[in-house]
Amino acid sequence: MTDKPSGPTSSKAQNIANEVRRRIVERVWRQGDRIPDEADLAVEFVAARATVNKALQLLADEGLLDRRRRAGTRVAVDPVRKATFTISIVREQVEQAGMVYGYRVVAQRRSPIPPEIAARLDLPEGEVMVHMRAVHYGDGQPFQLEDRWINPRAAPSLEKADFRQLNANEWLVRNAPYLRAELAFSAENANRRDARLLQTQPGRALLIMHRTTWNDLGPITTVRVAFQPGHLVGTENSQSRLHWPVQRGVGT
User: How far apart are CA 54 and CA 202, in angstroms?
Assistant: First the structure.
């Protein structure tokens, strides 16, 4: 019997994953236990082996299963729940909120990286990268401010990019896939530059996000994003998919 996927993950695979997860949570299968082979599970669930494989991979991605070639699949010991991380395209967020998107490059130049950026990227101090500042707008009001460094070696087609026509956030999402990312949030008082570009008062509390991505060529980009006062960050479908609800008129 074969199963036809109804999307990236078929409903059959999701149902199998849910049942296997239940057995792990209820300790039918305990930490370290080897679970039945895919062929046996395919018979039990009346499903194609490929569907079972997809279901088990979902749970491995969550950190609940430890899958090793020739060693079978075991329930993870001291499992750590893993999150799926997706970098949102700011333009789409603004437009989905029913607002007109705008974007302005404040500054862009090649510049040697300062010590704090070199330490974050594990690169030699003074290495030359593209440094830019830009503001995203919704209905003409500042939405978020980016202070970004881009590594030309990890984004070979960077020379062809015109960031005055297509913003760096969207270009990087579409042209520089990452293998891993680091994300950190902090609260900072708006300095004079933040306040001027976000059209708020100096000293106002801002949510700040630092995000860095890497591929097999090295660090791609690191960005400091300053949001309007009162901005929110949430998760979607319990998968740590970051999104920033647009707030009209905040900080104006």
Answer: 51
R_g of the chain, CA atoms, integer Å:
22
Q: What is the mean pLDDT of each run of 10 residues along the chain (252 residues)?
A: 43 91 89 93 95 91 85 84 75 92 96 96 94 96 97 92 90 88 93 96 95 92 93 56 37 27
Tokens of 241: 């998919």
DSSP 8-state assignment for residue 191: -
Sign for the pseudo-dihedral over CA of 199, 201, 203, 206: negative
- pLDDT per residue as tens digits for the range 153-182: 999 889 889 988 889 999 999 898 887 889
- Residues in contact with 182: Cβ distance below 8 Å, sequence separation at least 6, in sequence order: 210, 211, 212, 213
- In angstroms, the Cα distances linking 160 to 26, 34, 89, 166 are 54, 51, 20, 11
Q: How far apart are CA 232 and CA 74, in angstroms?
A: 39
On the 0-12 / 13-18 / 19+ scale of CB atoms within 10 A, 145 is: buried
Q: Which residues contact 177 (CB under 8 A, 6 or more apart)?
A: 215
Report the distance separating Cα 203 and Cα 192, nearest Å.
8
Amino acid at position 7, single letter: G
- Torsions phi, psi of 243, nearest 5? -150, 155
